[in-house]
């Protein structure tokens, strides 16, 4: 499972005040007019509102322990709420196979329009299926929601996996238009302990029935991490095609792999900084996607690396930001895990992508491991760090709920416009590693300047149709 579910060990008091200061600037960046607001990131029922998928691989299904479920929270004019939902599991809604113990359905998922019908679809993995060989399913979007599915088999399935040499098919998923043909493709990689270099499998024009073309196979020149994380997509070099950022196993070093008319180009890969979480978004509105890497183990209490994009790809010298950066609320302490989650979205509607960074090990004196999130503003000059950084936690105004020991608020974050007002809302997951509670999802809408405005709500597992059990970790996995 993702190491993000482990409990952090240190304590920190999160400061609520925002200090003065300036910007962390990309070298040579000129002011540029921001582009139009992006389309909804995941609209499964075609109503124009972005939806949120909360994967819950530890969920019990009909008494089957750890079979796994995925909860779809549908967007609306009032954002996301537990009442408007769909709960997915194997054996329901046309999804093949049946729930089995520790299948882990929902632990990895990504949204994209894979059949080109105008509805977003959901690729979702049951990573524990078949003794951790994994089972990958694409569930189809429609006016009625997600229904019907196909299974995508592993072309290179190991005949005799061992603990030292195994692969979990679908352990890493990314969606994007990597060849520039105007349609989403699905990139799949195996999460593996094997010593071989990684391989990417690109599925194009996935059909609901009939013969299906074999995926394009891209051999990488580096090994991928064994974790169910470490992949992101976006157009970094501004050529109209999406690129990939992937975490490698050696020193957790990330690599940039550009797209092309022929697909992904591993021979043009460039090394980036270390970290397990990645996101791509245009911070400064110059038309190039910027890469943010969350390095929760870096420095004293975690950090993020910001590599600004250009026609030549991401900068080779990323800007480093942590809680000791002037203007960033708090202070870096061991175990904060600042950078455990990262996500882009335009919170204030100015056309520049803003950034949310989770730190699930943060402590709110005297509550250890309560967790927190920082929201940074994008601007023509780059990511703003000196002023206006919003610290969000259970003690913040407009945030429902109370600070609780080991809640790990911020273990997962998402910025998406769930109410279609032109501004991204913040969705925060909390895993509740206290052994008693079961996790939660907090929806914090934007008021045009910051998140946490009226309309915020706390969603608990029972409200979302799940059986609340210790260790459920509802909120630890969001679809991208």
Task: Report on the architecture of this protein.
The chain is an all-beta fold. Helix content is 1%, strand content 32%. The chain contains one helix and 30 strands. A hairpin with an 8-residue loop joins strand 21 and strand 22. It is globular and about 55 Å long.
Termini separation? 17 Å
Low-confidence stretches: 1-31
- Number-wise, the strands total 30
Strand content: 25-35%
Q: What is the general shape?
A: globular
Radius of gyration: 20 Å
Question: Would you tell me the structural class of the helices and strands?
Answer: mainly beta
Helix count, DSSP H or I runs of 4 or more residues: 1
How much helix, percentage-wise, in residues?
under 10%
Major sheet description? 4 strands, antiparallel
Kindly report the average pLDDT value: 90
Strand order of the main beta sheet, please? 4-3-2-30
Chart the SSEs and their pairings.
Elements: E1 23-24, E2 52-56, E3 69-73, E4 85-88, E5 105-112, E6 121-126, H1 129-132, E7 135-139, E8 149-152, E9 167-176, E10 185-192, E11 199-203, E12 216-219, E13 231-234, E14 243-247, E15 253-257, E16 270-274, E17 277-281, E18 290-295, E19 303-307, E20 319-321, E21 338-345, E22 354-359, E23 372-376, E24 383-384, E25 390-392, E26 409-416, E27 425-430, E28 440-444, E29 457-459, E30 477-478
Antiparallel strand pairs: 1-24, 2-3, 2-30, 3-4, 5-6, 6-7, 7-8, 9-10, 10-11, 11-12, 13-14, 14-15, 15-16, 17-18, 18-19, 19-20, 21-22, 22-23, 23-25, 26-27, 27-28, 28-29
Give a short overview.
The chain has 1 helix and 30 strands.
């Amino acid at each position: 499972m993702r190491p993000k579910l482990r409990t952090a060990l240190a304590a920190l008091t999160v400061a609520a005040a925002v200090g003065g200061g300036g910007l962390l600037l990309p070298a040579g960046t000129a002011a540029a007019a921001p582009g139009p607001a992006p389309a909804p990131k995941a609209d499964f029922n075609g109503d124009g509102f972005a939806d949120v998928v909360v994967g819950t691989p530890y969920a019990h299904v009909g008494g089957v322990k750890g079979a796994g479920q995925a909860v779809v929270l549908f967007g609306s004019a009032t954002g996301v709420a537990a009442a408007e939902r769909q709960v997915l599991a194997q054996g329901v809604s046309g999804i093949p196979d049946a729930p089995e113990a520790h299948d882990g359905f929902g632990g990895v998922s990504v949204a994209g329009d894979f059949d080109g019908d105008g509805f977003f679809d959901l690729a979702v993995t049951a990573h524990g299926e078949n003794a951790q060989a994994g089972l990958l399913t694409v569930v189809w979007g429609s006016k009625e929601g997600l229904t019907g599915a196909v299974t995508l088999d592993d072309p290179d399935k190991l005949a005799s996996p061992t603990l030292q040499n195994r692969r979990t098919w679908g352990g890493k998923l990314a969606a994007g238009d990597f060849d520039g043909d105007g349609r989403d493709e699905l990139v799949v990689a195996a999460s593996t302990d094997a010593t071989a270099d990684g391989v990417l499998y690109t599925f194009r024009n996935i059909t609901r029935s009939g013969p299906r073309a074999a995926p394009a196979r891209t051999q990488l020149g580096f090994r991928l991490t064994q974790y169910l994380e470490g992949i992101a997509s976006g157009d970094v070099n501004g050529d109209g095609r999406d690129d990939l950022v992937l975490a490698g196993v050696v020193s957790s070093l990330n690599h940039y792999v550009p797209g092309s008319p022929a697909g992904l180009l591993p021979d043009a890969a460039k090394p980036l900084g270390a970290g397990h979480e990645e996101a791509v978004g245009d911070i400064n509105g110059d038309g190039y996607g910027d890469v943010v890497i969350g390095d929760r183990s870096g420095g004293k209490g975690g950090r993020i690396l910001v590599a600004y994009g250009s026609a030549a790809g991401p900068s080779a010298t990323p800007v480093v930001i942590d809680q000791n950066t002037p203007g960033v609320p708090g202070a870096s302490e061991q175990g904060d895990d600042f950078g455990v989650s990262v996500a882009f979205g335009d919170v204030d509607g100015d056309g520049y992508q803003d950034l949310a960074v989770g730190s699930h090990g943060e402590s709110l004196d005297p509550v250890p491991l309560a967790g927190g999130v920082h929201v940074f503003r994008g601007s023509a000059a780059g990511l703003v760090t000196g002023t206006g950084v919003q610290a969000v936690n259970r003690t913040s105004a407009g945030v429902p709920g109370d600070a609780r020991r080991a809640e790990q608020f911020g273990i997962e974050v998402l910025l998406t416009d769930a109410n279609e007002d032109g501004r991204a809302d913040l969705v925060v997951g909390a895993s509740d590693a206290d052994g008693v509670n079961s996790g939660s999802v907090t929806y914090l809408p934007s008021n045009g300047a910051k998140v946490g405005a009226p309309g915020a709500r706390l969603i608990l597992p029972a409200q979302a149709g799940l059986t609340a059990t210790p260790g459920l970790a509802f909120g630890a996995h969001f679809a991208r």
